[in-house]
Amino acid sequence: MLVASVGFAGSSGKTGKATGKGTYKWVDEKGVTHYGDSVPPQYAQKERVILNEQGVEIGRLDAQRTPEQAEAYARQQEELRRSRERDAFLLNTYTSVKDIEQLRDARLDQLRGQRVAAQQYVDTLHQRLGSLQTRAMNFKPYSTHPNARRMPDDLAEDLVRTANEVRSQATSLSAKNAEEEQVRSRFQADIDRYRQLRPIRAAR
C-alpha cells in the first residue's frame, strides 16, 4: 500500500494536505463509491474518507464549502459557542432554580420601580399640557373672540415642547413595559435550561 498524500480544499478555500498510511474512499457524481491511494483531481474538493489497511475509517476530509455554506457554518459554530458559554455560566453561577428566581424578581422589581416613576412623570406632563392648552384657548388661532391676541411665543414654544416630551416619554414607557416582558421571558428560558443541565452534570 502506498503512503496516501492528497491536496484538499477546506471551508476557507486554502489547500492543505492529508497524509497517512491508508486508502481514500470517495463517491463520484453517479453515486458510485471508489477506493484508491489518491483521489482524482475532479474529486479533490468533495468529501473523502481515509481508511486504514483493515478498511476502518481513520479520517475524513470535508467537501469544499461555497461562500454561503461557509458563512452559514460560521454562524452555526458561533451560536454553538455562545450556547456552550451560556450553559457554563448557568451551571457555574447558580446553585438552584431559586437563585435564578430571586435574581429575576429583583430585576423585575427594579424595572417596575422605573416604570412607576416614568408613569408618574407622564401623568405630570399630561397635566401640564392640559394647562397649557387651556391657556392657549385664549389666543388666536384657538380663540373665536374677535379681539383675541396672537399667542405669545413663549406659550407656543412651551406647548410644543411639552407635547413632544409627552410623546417621547410615552414611547419610553412602552419600551420599559416591553423590557419587563423580555426580562421575564429570558429568565424563564434560563430556568428551563438550568433544569435540563443539572441532571446531566449530576450524572457525570
Task: Describe the 3D structure.
This protein is of the alpha+beta class and 204 residues long. It is built from 3 helices and 6 strands; from the N terminus they run E-E-E-E-E-E-H-H-H. Helix 2 packs antiparallel against helix 3. The protein is elongated. The model is unreliable at 1-20 (pLDDT under 50).
Q: Strand order across the biggest sheet?
A: 4-3-5-6
Task: Characterize the biggest β-sheet.
Answer: 4 strands, antiparallel
Question: Helices and strands, in N-to-C order?
Answer: EEEEEEHHH
What integer is the average pLDDT?
A: 83
User: Number of helical runs?
Assistant: 3
Q: What is the subunit organization of this protein?
A: single chain
**Helix proportion range:** 55-70%
- Strand proportion: 15-25%
How would you summarize the topology of this molecule?
Blueprint: E1 3-9, E2 15-21, E3 23-27, E4 33-36, E5 48-51, E6 57-61, H1 67-93, H2 97-136, H3 153-203
Antiparallel strand pairs: 1-2, 3-4, 3-5, 5-6
Helix pairs in contact: 2-3
Characteristics:
four-stranded antiparallel sheet, alpha+beta, single chain, 6 strands, 16% strand, 204 residues, two-stranded antiparallel sheet
What can be said about this structure in brief?
Helix content is 58%, strand content 16%. With 204 residues, it is an alpha+beta fold.
